[in-house]
Amino acid sequence: MNTTYQPEHEETLDPEDWDLARGLGHRMIDDLIDYWKTVRDRPVWKRPPDEVKARFHEPLPEKPQGMQQAYRDFQDLVLPYPKGNIHPSFWGWVDGTGTVFGAFAEMLAAGMNSNLGVADHSAVYVERQVISWSKEMLGFPGTASGILTSGASEANLIGLLVARNSVANTDVGNYGMGNAEGRLTLYGSTESHSSLIKAADILGLGKEAFRKVPVNENFQIDLGALRAAIVRDREQGHVPFCIVGNAGTVNTGAIDPLDELAELARAEKLWFHIDGAFGALAALLPEYENKIRGLSKADSLAFDFHKWLYVPYEAACVLVRDAEKHHHALAVSADYLNPQARGMAAGPEPLSNYGIQLSRGFKALKVWLSLKEHGIDKYRRLIRQNIHQARYLGSLVEASQKLELLAPVSLNIVCYRYNPGGFDEDALNRLNQTLLAELQERGIAAPSYTVINGRFAIRVANTNHRSRREDFHRLVQASLAIGEAILCARPAEAVV
Ligand SMILES: Cc1ncc(COP(=O)(O)O)c(C=O)c1O
């Protein structure tokens, strides 16, 4: 190891040969275009083989391998074994599909390598415009504030942080939770996303402070049970501070009665936060206006761009109705960050005063360019297409004697199972776990799973702009064929 500094041999990480870099860059784009164009011809998912996994134990490179070799390693070890979420038959978790132009935008953003924490530069204005457009899309007032985040998990955390610091009876922002009078509690349905529970923990409230309220047969929060839980907590000296509404639950896509929740929160003087990770963007559709009307009444709203706006990972947003409260909860004065009268730091309010990160990437560019590329009406059509495809799948399931729908299809999620009759619940759970694994391992389709009323469900969440009706038809055919094959090859006792 050379430890001497040699001024006559100063170095840089820029390429020695710019033409070589240009050629490789062009090749990478050509390779990606081919990769995208042929995605339908490949299996949805392929497990990385052991010999490939072993390569990830190679030691830290001491000597240069060069761009070309490094790229070859990417081609051999990384690119062939993706999660599969750019594939038309991927419907697992709530993974977004990404877009071609969105990927180009990521390259441009990385090329600029903008850091959006502080200072007056173009990228900050792009993000501010994306926040303004988001307010417009989701019915928030122009005076509201917002910030782009890594995902809805972080957006939920920020929403709940502002809620906690704004509503708490004592100044927990400055003096910590130990200073709060009484236990702060918040409320959401049993279907609320795990990120909200995690946020309660991170905020020092404790996971148990998130009161899980039962749901009705449509998986929407039970308003009576919610009211009773608030009363019960107050009677015990606790301090309810926030109601969380779901605009699209992760399990089934259920939309809570947001209007009623907004009203209740107002009457009880509680903060109203909405987790609209994917469902919020259904508000773009006039036909969902009634169902999702309460969205614009939230004090804070979390939603993702990387799910139902289809942009590549990562990009989400939190909007907060009262910009001052948002700022108060997250701005910290520091000599090296405070605005200056002139120069680079004389720009707009630093975005970092509204979020957790100081250094922040240029996530906004892919959203900004995508909205310009397609216009919002195209997104309306695609979201509508995904909802109709989900309904189509739901109708195929219902029409089949051997498949069973496990929850109403209220948005873009379908939960079903293979149930030919004659099996108990445990056997059906195991049968469907095997069926799902077969679908995934054979690369046919990639739904994920959940448990609905104790029943293992094959769960299809459709935020995929590449899917076609025929893909859902094929999923149903494959589910039936594999279900039958499992039973033939392995009689009931083997499954049980
Ligand atoms: C309803 C809901 N909320 C929150 C999240 C978390 O979002 P992210 O994965 O972007 O952090 C998800 C993710 O699927 C979700 O479905």
How would a textbook summarize the main sheet?
7 strands, mixed
The number of domains = 2
Biggest sheet, strands in spatial order? 2-8-7-6-5-3-4
Low-confidence stretches: 492-496
What string, H for helix and E for strand, traces the elements in order? HHHEHHEHHEHEHEHEHEEHHHEEHEEHH
**What is the residue-mean pLDDT, rounded to a whole number?**
96
Which CATH architecture of the largest domain?
3-Layer(aba) Sandwich
Question: How many helices in DSSP terms?
Answer: 17
Bound molecules: pyridoxal-5'-phosphate
Per CATH, the superfamily of the largest domain is Type I PLP-dependent aspartate aminotransferase-like (Major domain)
Q: State the shape.
A: globular
Question: What do these coordinates show?
Answer:
Helix 5 packs across helix 13. The chain has helices at residues 18-37, 50-55, 66-78, 100-112, 122-138, 152-167, 172-175, 194-202, 223-235, 258-268, 289-292, 323-330, 364-374, 376-399, 425-441, 469-489, 492-495; strands at 90-91, 145-149, 184-189, 210-213, 239-246, 271-275, 300-304, 316-320, 403-405, 413-418, 446-452, 455-461. The strands form two sheets. Strands 2-8-7-6-5-3-4 form a seven-stranded mixed beta sheet, with helices on both faces. A five-stranded mixed beta sheet has the order 1-11-12-10-9. The model is unreliable at 492-496 (pLDDT under 50). With 496 residues, the chain is of the alpha/beta class. The radius of gyration is 25 Å and the shape is globular. The termini are far apart. It has two domains: 105-374, 3-Layer(aba) Sandwich (Aspartate Aminotransferase, domain 2); 377-495, Aspartate Aminotransferase, domain 1. Strand 9 (403-405) and strand 10 (413-418) form a beta hairpin. It binds pyridoxal-5'-phosphate. Pyridoxal-5'-phosphate (PLP) is lined by residues 93-94, 151-153, 193, 195, 248-250, 275, 277-278, 304, 316.
